[in-house]
């Protein structure tokens, strides 16, 4: 950083000794404040104060390598391209900074092959993909790799960007560093899959121009992570086209979003999965049919986990009902939908019960303490757990006698 020069003047040419003394007293304070302000402007604390670089040097894009330095340099270098930045290489650089060997690595932003050759790892530039050499570019004409092509046991077929390439090769280690889960831990693998499917794959698709669907969109989605990173680039008509400050902001933004997702999936989503798995494993003790599960606590997000665990645990007979207590201490019986994105149920509560409440419903159903059955037939209530279970059992018995009448009703 260039020395900070302070030019202190009094209010008039005939300044008094008092003003001169005040200038000398203020100088250390102003110097300290200016230094702290320049440091605060960067997440990684390496953006020079604006006054330290002549405007003429910042006005146009430089072809010289741009370096992002951390406080403690490890000697390692991460290479990526300069100029306009995108979400994929920003996220890739963030991933690498979570690893011990790259924690304090310098980020060198350049397209100069000689400079890139000096880097320990290169992402999103260089025209080569070779994990053995730590080269992770995806722009070459011959590149068509997907998660599935590189890891056949994984289902995703979206073309990888530098974010996906780095995540595929280092993601488990990154998550292990952030969560303290050990590599090989089943929960870490579930987390690894979930974060690719719900964050990184989107970045891969946007960067590679892979449409989410065919046909015309009904409305625009302009607030994706990739879009927000793009907005941090200089505007086309800005006097300065320097991208360093925006790249810093993007690192902080994508890092914060990824860490927030990790926190949610580790501390909310995974515990819900544990609850659902326990309920699925105990289902035969709830009812011999194995088609009813019970959660001891309401509010647990269960649908996604239930569908996944049925496959993972090879559940032969699909689960039809979920029981759980509501906020009033009463019990709910909810139908399992036919899929995540449908209002059809595997088995709806009896049609003649729908829209009926309280004593009238108890008399009609023959089940004591009934509260309600929704007009759509997808949920009902009872004052007791036993009553809710009996409502599920009677619906199962009726379906066994006349399967076509009840299955897959809305």
UniProtKB/TrEMBL annotation:
Source taxon at top rank: Eukaryota
Gene Ontology cellular-component terms for this entry are: cytoplasm; nucleus
Q: Which InterPro entries match?
A: MYG1_exonuclease
Alphabetical UniProt keywords: Exonuclease, Hydrolase, Nuclease
What family classification does the UniProt entry report for this protein?
Answer: Belongs to the MYG1 family.
According to UniProt, the name of this protein is: MYG1 exonuclease
Q: Please spell out the taxonomic lineage of the organism that makes this protein.
A: Eukaryota, Metazoa, Chordata, Craniata, Vertebrata
Q: Which gene encodes it?
A: myg1
